Amino acid sequence: MMFNKRETKYPMPVQEPLVRNKNFNEVCLGYDAETAKLEAQRCLHCKNSPCVNGCPVSIMIPDFIAAIAAGEFGEAYEVISQNSMLPAVCGRVCPQERQCEKLCVRAIKGEAVAIGRLERFAADYHAIHAGKTERPASNGHKVAVVGSGPAGLACAGDLARLGYEVTVFEALHEAGGVLAYGIPAFRLPKEIVRREVENLMELGVKFEMNSVVGRLYTVEELKESGFEAIFLGTGAGLPRFMGIKGENAKGVFSANEYLTRANLMRAYEEDSKTPVYRGKNVAVVGGGNVAMDAARTAKRLGAEKVFIVYRRGKEELPARGEEIEHAMEEEVEFRLLTDPVEILTDAENNVVAMKCVETVLGEPDASGRRKPVAKAGSEFEIAVDCVIMALGTSPNPLVKQTTVGLETNARGGIVADENGKTSLDGVFAGGDAVTGSATVILAMGAGKRVARSIDEYIRNKIS
């Protein structure tokens, strides 16, 4: 066993890198009770709680940490769950270092309090020691939630607590959206996702699996069947590609497909009915968390060499620092300031190499990031037999294509105001379906805002 290198006074134990890169067990092993209390006692309980301002769902962070410091672990969970339906998930995958921990006063002259790790501890403790959740009394009003990703689950949970009869329609056979199909088990064990879904079921939320809204039902048909409001949390599952020559070759995947096969369809099992191609030399194009997930998955599927190919430098990598660190420890190679220009194939259209150019960073682009510029005469090849494109995703198009009058923007996102109201009466939207691909916690924040908006909408209709 080793310890995570991230700067903190009480590091978290993790699996050894050259052991874990051959299995799908969780990398980070979590705090024990004594370590959690010691870390919690570092909190200064600041009067203005700047950390809370950095939390998209406004968890009362000093309060739950104080409970842990006092050994009141169940109370800590109760504080968190007032604002978050998915604490075991968020404690594992939220970018706390860019949110709550970034604003921690402790971070000014040292290490921030490990807020995310403490949240995870409280959630895991609750799972072991708590009884069943009490179901609120029904208020007699029905709401449909389309999509069981973070936005949909947050919205469904908050509405169920208010007494609404909520039905979640999920296109796949397992609930969780990107939590189930996108994030690998070594970062987020699937039993954690199922546990959070079961908590919602205890609140009375119903789930209809294999229900593709836009095919099995239209939005209009849901309204006609008695749902007084509908939340569209359909996510962003449409992959992007580069548009370079050879991109349609055998052995080229979107990260979406690759990770879905591995995570949801369990392609890593020897007898899997939906296997995935196991390349020996794999290039992953992109630098975000999804790219790290795909590269680390490829290692676990037996790849001898795995390359992260990214057109900017290390400082510009958008992935979490912890994920970059873990990938490097697991022997993923980083080819930075490198831009693919062509995928080379053999006579049978199998990938054999990727032609790239070296880049330098020029002037900032529209997003404020320095734009990569190709260096003249710098072409070279990387020998690979598999290429995974992890270039981001766009909102899923089916609902917009089958819902008359639903306004969308040029990027395919559903147009909604700050309260989630769309161009259709009684139809709301939030999360990646509106913003495009973002973080789990931002999607949850959107789901919570829309839940309040739906509650207000229905109460105003009946008053």
At the third CATH level, what is the topology name of the largest domain?
FAD/NAD(P)-binding domain
Helix share of residues? 25-40%
The rounded Rg comes to 23 Å
Low-confidence parts lasting 5 or more residues at pLDDT below 50? none
* Total helical segments: 17
Structural class: alpha/beta
> Can you say what the CATH homologous superfamily of the largest domain is?
FAD/NAD(P)-binding domain
- Percent of sequence in beta strands: 15-25%
* CATH hierarchy: architecture of the largest domain: 3-Layer(bba) Sandwich
First-to-last CA distance? 60 Å
Quick one: overall form?
globular
Give the integer mean of the pLDDT values.
94
Query: What is the highest CATH level, the class of the largest domain?
Result: Alpha Beta
Largest sheet: 5 strands, parallel
Tell me briefly what this model is:
By secondary structure, this protein is of the alpha/beta class. About 35% of the residues lie in helices and about 15% in strands.
Structure description:
The protein has 463 residues and is an alpha/beta fold. The protein folds into three domains: 2-129, Alpha-helical ferredoxin (Fumarate Reductase Iron-sulfur Protein, Chain B, domain 2), CATH 1.10.1060; 142-237 and 394-462, FAD/NAD(P)-binding domain (3-Layer(bba) Sandwich), CATH 3.50.50.60; 241-391, FAD/NAD(P)-binding domain (3-Layer(bba) Sandwich), CATH 3.50.50.60. 33% of the residues lie in helices and 17% in strands. The chain is built from 17 helices and 18 strands. It has helices at residues 17-20, 33-40, 50-53, 61-69, 73-81, 87-93, 115-129, 150-161, 178-181, 190-202, 219-224, 255-263, 289-300, 321-329, 398-402, 432-435, 440-462; strands at 2-3, 13-14, 142-146, 165-169, 206-208, 229-232, 238-239, 252-254, 281-285, 305-309, 333-335, 338-345, 351-364, 370-374, 380-382, 386-389, 393-394, 427-429. The protein has a five-stranded parallel β-sheet with strand order 5-4-3-6-18. Helix 6 (87-93) packs antiparallel against helix 7 (115-129), helix 8 packs parallel to helix 17 (440-462) and helix 12 crosses helix 13 (289-300). It is globular. The N and C termini lie far apart (60 Å). The mean pLDDT is 94.
